[in-house]
Sequence to fold (298 residues):
Amino acid sequence: MSKTPFKAGYVAVIGRPNAGKSTLINQILQQKLSIVSHKPQTTRHQILAIYHQEQGQIVFLDTPGIHNQKKTALNRQLNQTAKTSAQEVDVVMVMVEATKWQDEDKRAAAIAMDSRAKKILVINKVDLVKDKSELIPFVERILGEFEFDEVFYISALKNKQIEVLLEGLFRYLPASEPLFDETHISDRSSRFFVAELIREQLTLRFHEELPYSVTVTIDSYDEKPEIVHIHATIWVEREQQKRIIIGRKGDAIKQVGTKARHEIEHLIDSRVNLKLWVKVKSSWTDDQNALDALGYRD
Fold:
């Protein structure tokens, strides 16, 4: 009896903001690689998430949400990152929230149609639909506009039907040697994930005041035997935003630092000494040179 060949390939995960892309990736890997919040544009970079299994290896490209806003250079950069990710992959997976089909969903589907890859439609959050019969006309409407090779129904948050999805993805991948060493789960460095965890806490705490005008860079990352010393800068666009983050007598930034430190310690499995500074870079979200300097050109 012939042995089933090992399969490996790339799967781009695209969709509008908050469709559940990052939640799915974190669930599959059972580790937080992509930060999650209910605010759009939480994911700002393409992140490779490498899933290893006996039958093969799936390299997911988690991408920023496709959105219609074009107001700033950051908005345009995020859309371009997602669009580029759909090229030169084996499968494009379009994630849609069950019963919700919006202009941004159509734009994501259109991007997928421009790819030569296999195209999969994933209906997420089906656990929130009480009457499952509503899904039939909903999906028929989508398939009337766009042609997909297969449709899957999942709940990323509840971990429902994800194994079925993974089996389906393996069917579309080519026979191949592993693309990455099995010890790797991403192409990103610890410094990158540390910056993202700090930004996550800022987004969660200040989601009303400045979710889009804040980013984080790591100034130093010094590993000692017993502790890792990390210095990071939080960048905002205006002095008022800086005052909001620092808070009265520094209370706000201390709380952000404490929560971020706990998340970082869990990630790197080490004690952490975290120091944060807040600086102003005027209109950085609409300045391509500033975006490049802050790490937004993937």
User: Anything to note?
Assistant: Residues 195 and 216 are 6 Å apart (CA to CA). DSSP finds nine helices and nine strands in the chain. Residues 251-268 form the longest helix (18 residues). The longest strand covers residues 227-236.
